[in-house]
Write a structure and sequence with these properties.
Blueprint (H helix, E strand, L loop, with lengths): L2 H11 L5 H14 L12 H12 L25
Keywords: Membrane, Transmembrane, Transmembrane helix
């Protein structure tokens, strides 16, 4: 599911006055993700919570903390020299 489809769905489901709370929730999840350890298994309870937080944080493409459960480390990005 691409981000545009998710956004279109959320706009139809969430009342307009509550969008600020949804944006704040996404921001909090994005701030928490770099410090959360990547779970060993996607099937575990923590793995499912981690996946949901990763989705809410909108870690879709070019972010360093978008590791998926079951991987050993987060995706490494090279810093420009």
């Amino acid at each position: 599911m691409d981000p545009t489809t998710i956004l279109t769905y959320l706009i139809g489901v969430v009342p307009v006055q509550d969008l600020i709370y949804l944006a704040a929730l996404c921001g909090v999840c994005a701030v928490l993700m770099p410090w959360l350890p990547v779970p060993a298994s996607k099937a575990s309870a923590y793995g499912r919570i981690y996946t949901a937080l990763n989705l809410l944080a909108q870690n879709f493409r070019n972010v360093a903390n978008r590791a998926q459960p079951g991987t050993t480390q987060a995706a490494q990005t090279e810093s420009p020299k």
